[in-house]
Amino acid sequence: MTINWKIKLTNNKSSYYGRTDGTIVDDLDVISQKLGVSKDKCADTITNIRVVKVVVDGAGAIDRVKFTYLVETKDKSLEIEGNQHGNPNGGGTTYEFKNDLWLLNVKGTWGNNSSGQTLFNRLDFWGWNVKNNTLWTDGAGNKESKGSTCELFSPACFFSRTAGPETNTWKVTLLGAIGCYWGEISDGNVPKLQAEKATSEQKWTEWANWGNSLTNVWIKYDTLKKFGDDITVARLTQVADALTQLEKDKTNLNSQITTLTTDKQKLQTDLTNSQTNNTKLTADNQAKDTTISDLNHTIKDLQKIVDDNKDLPDKIKDLNKQLSDKDTELGKRNDTINTLTNEKTKAEQERDTTKGELKKYTDVFPNKTPEQLKADIETLNKRPNITQEEYNKILNNQEKHTPDQLEKHTETDLKPADYETIKTDLNKWLGAFPANKYSEGAEDVSQALTAAEAKVTKLKSDKEELMKIVRQNIRKELTLFFQAMEISSSLIGKRFKSDEVWKKTYGTNFDYEDIVDEKLTLENRESMKMAFKVVACICATEKAEELKAQLKKIDAKLKKRIDNINENWKVVENYTQIDAKDNPFYLNVINERQKYKTKAENLMNEALQVQPDK
């Protein structure tokens, strides 16, 4: 991306950071003299102004600093050397900001040094190379100094106060205080960054929203950590969390893009109007330092979406009805699965019984079919019903019998001695297993089992598909619930990750969408939803109390947030039974929900006493 930045001088200026006494030195006096226009006309005359050189000197404290500017008007371009801020005599280290390197931020530290003197101890300069997309930083003074700090983002022109010889043991003139005229940075692709006095955390977020190039500068910890103690882990962690949440919010909102295309144009118009309003607020509140780290661009965007989609409660009702319908369908499917499972069990029992009886048969008659058994019985029935002893008598008295009689009574025709036992057993097995009974029964059992297993598999698959839809709808429902209270999932995640009992069971990572996908079942879904919503209300109440303490009042925006929090408490107040078993969203703090609900109600009562701004 080709970047063609310009810095527009504004009439807005910062406070003096540092000492409150000393001689005032203003570079705009020099610039107005070189241009031949009055000082109050410079903002209208200058089309672009940027620092192209800095000369700075100082070890234990800042001795002096001088800025050189490239100033452009409609008809000319001049390089103008500013005043010597601090000690008027001497030089120092020179830093060039030309071609592709731009000075975007000056950070200062002042306070009591080791000798107990109130001096300006440190100046750091931050630049950005638009060609290489790299960060540059350097400075002068005591790196170990601690005290009050200031950050002059997008500076256009500087002014200062001197610290006279009487202020220090060295008896020399030093830099006592510094400030700047704000500039508006813009190019053809990036919206204007409004110059306003704000905390570091807010400014980091504004820089990050500029685009990929500046985002890489201000939020990559592995890049920034090498620049020393000026980059704190807390600050970078906060920005990284905000951007991580922004990516999740982007994923959650992709499904709504089609229906929100028309609203997008309105949001863009609102954004332009909001930028205009922000410029006015900047002028009205230059002398105020507001610390509201959570009010970043991500929350503002989400708030606009919530405001412009007031029909979301109806959508949630539709989702709840869909969930109820799916629950009914799942219940019917479960009943069918149970019935088929019982039928399958009965069929398996019949199969096993049949196999057992068949084994008994084959153990007794391993080589006989039922047809052969029947033939054996008929053969035995045809034999004479005489014993061996009777047969021997016939042989011994042959003279009393004719040959025909003897022929009918051969030894092979005699019935065996255990004839009755054999006949009983044969008839028993023949009655138990007529021809083809086992083969037909086995085939019927096998077919029934196959059909039952197929039905069970199909119903389980259908059930899982329905659960996917249920989980998707519940993820959407939970997202809309906490977004309506203007909090992020990372804030809720901190509450879970700080709970020692929860960490022992589920570890240190928290992603509510992954937990829904992996842990939510038909049985625990209601308890999981209720637990998550109660924890979200608790986090939102704590955040509102924190914002009130920071602002030292309840303004209109905070009142609206508190109102939304109380509406959601009304939703969860009937959750009397929240099961902790198999519930990864359950925390012990849920048992204290009445305490937090009372806090939210007290905030609302206090907000109702506040007179609206005129």
Assign a percent range to the helix content.
Answer: 40-55%
Whole-number tally of structural domains: 4
Q: Which CATH-level-2 architecture of the largest domain? A: Aligned Prism
Indicate the low-confidence ranges by residue numbers.
Answer: 188-233, 287-295, 434-442
End-to-end distance, in Å?
45 Å
Q: Main beta sheet, described?
A: 5 strands, antiparallel
Overall spatial form: elongated
Count of helix runs: 20
Rg estimate, integer Å: 45 Å
Strand content: 15-25%
In the CATH scheme, what's the topology name of the largest domain?
Vitelline Membrane Outer Layer Protein I, subunit A
Q: At the fourth CATH level, what is the homologous superfamily of the largest domain?
A: Jacalin-like lectin domain
The CATH class name of the largest domain reads Mainly Beta
The chain-level mean pLDDT equals 75
Kindly state the number of beta strands. Answer: 13
Structural category is alpha+beta
